[in-house]
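The instructor's notes for this session suggest beginning with a concrete chain rather than abstract definitions. Hand out the sequence below and ask the class to guess, before any prediction is shown, which regions might be ordered.
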Amino acid sequence: MKVGDSVDDIIKSYYRDQNYQNHLYVSEDKTLTYGKFLYGEFTTNELEKINTKDPIAYGLINYNGYNSIETAESYNVEFTYFDGKYKGSQATIDDDFATLNFEIDNNGKITGISWFYYPEQK
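After discussion, reveal the predicted structure:
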């Protein structure tokens, strides 16, 4: 993937869930839609509720505060991974994880690519 490629190129390469168009990422009270999962069931925001020791991976189309891809001036496609080597009895936001982030404009073109590594916090 490179800047200038299409969001469709990302989706063809990375999505795993055939039903992703119907798998919304919503607020706890279900009044806000934050985006759509490409795969995975939860984000780092739900770690305290999930209580897992398993590796975690999810792909997400993040609307960045807009209601949908169609209304967004720009949005992100994010891929996050925790390898399962946690410092405690379960995954927390303080454990090592990495995120690959694609910035997408309202024409569906990649405008930026970044990789973030969040090392374990003591």
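Then share the key points. The CA atoms of residues 86 and 95 lie 6 Å apart. The radius of gyration is 15 Å.
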